[in-house]
Structures are given as structure tokens and as C-alpha cells.
């Protein structure tokens, strides 16, 4: 009965050690995501604290343990290239991902009022 508990504990310790190593490897200039979903650029590092800069230029202080992962910035080539030939055609005022039929399935005139 104790063997599964020891195995799970060992696996959890390995995962925590891997996370600590990842966070310790990050330095100034790396883009990261915190566990709460905040994306920022590391501008200063201290022993257990980092200063993250958001896209609007504001800087906030975060604990190193709050960093979930490093983020790979999207290159300019990937961002400007069309993903699909259907995506390159865009209608004015259309909402991406929403398909609207041109003809209604039920006529509006036949309602009893």
C-alpha cells in the first residue's frame, strides 16, 4: 500500500525539480507566462524575484515560483504569412470563426403577431 504513495511522491518531486530548473534558467530578455496567465518580458532578476514588463511598458514584481513557462515569441514571418487560402479572403464586418447563412431557414413574414 505504501509503494504507490512513494512512487507518486517521487514523480511529483521530479516534476517540481524540473520546474525549478526551468525557472532558474530564465534570465533577462526572456518572455514568460505566469501561472495566472500574465505574459511578460523579464527585465530584471533577483534571487527569488523577477521584474516583468508587459506590452504597454508597465513593470510588475513577481516571485520566480509564479513563472509557469518560457514563451517562444512569434517570428515576424509566421505572423505575416497567411495560414490558409480561405483566411486570406476577408469580408468587411465579418466575425472570424462565425458562419452565417445568407438565407434564413424560417421566413420572418410568416409569424403570427
From TrEMBL:
Subcellular location, record wording: Cell membrane
Entry annotated with the keyword Transmembrane helix: yes
Residues spanning the membrane: none
Top-level division of the source organism's lineage: Bacteria
One GO cellular component, as annotated: plasma membrane
Topological relation to the membrane, as annotated: Single-pass membrane protein
GO biological process, one term: protein transport
Pfam family of the protein (one): YajC
Stretch list, region Disordered: 73-113
Chain intervals with Basic and acidic residues compositional bias: 103-113
Keyword Transmembrane helix attributed: yes
InterPro entries referenced in this protein's UniProt entry, alphabetically: Preprotein_translocase_YajC (IPR003849)
SMART domains per the UniProt record, alphabetical: YajC (SM01323)
Keyword terms, alphabetized: Cell membrane, Membrane, Protein transport, Translocation, Transmembrane, Transmembrane helix, Transport
Similarity comment: family membership: Belongs to the YajC family.
Protein's recorded name: Preprotein translocase subunit YajC
Organism field: Brachybacterium alimentarium
Amino acid at each position: 500500500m505504501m509503494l504507490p504513495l512513494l512512487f507518486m511522491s517521487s514523480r511529483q518531486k521530479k516534476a517540481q525539480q524540473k520546474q525549478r530548473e526551468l525557472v532558474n534558467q530564465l534570465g533577462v530578455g526572456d518572455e514568460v507566462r505566469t501561472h495566472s496567465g500574465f505574459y511578460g518580458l523579464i527585465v530584471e532578476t533577483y534571487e527569488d524575484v523577477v521584474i516583468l514588463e508587459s506590452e504597454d511598458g508597465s513593470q510588475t514584481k513577481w516571485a520566480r515560483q509564479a513563472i509557469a513557462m518560457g514563451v517562444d515569441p512569434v517570428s515576424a514571418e509566421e505572423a505575416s504569412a497567411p495560414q490558409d487560402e480561405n483566411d486570406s479572403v476577408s469580408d468587411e464586418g465579418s466575425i472570424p470563426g462565425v458562419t452565417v447563412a445568407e438565407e434564413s431557414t424560417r421566413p420572418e413574414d410568416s409569424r403570427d403577431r
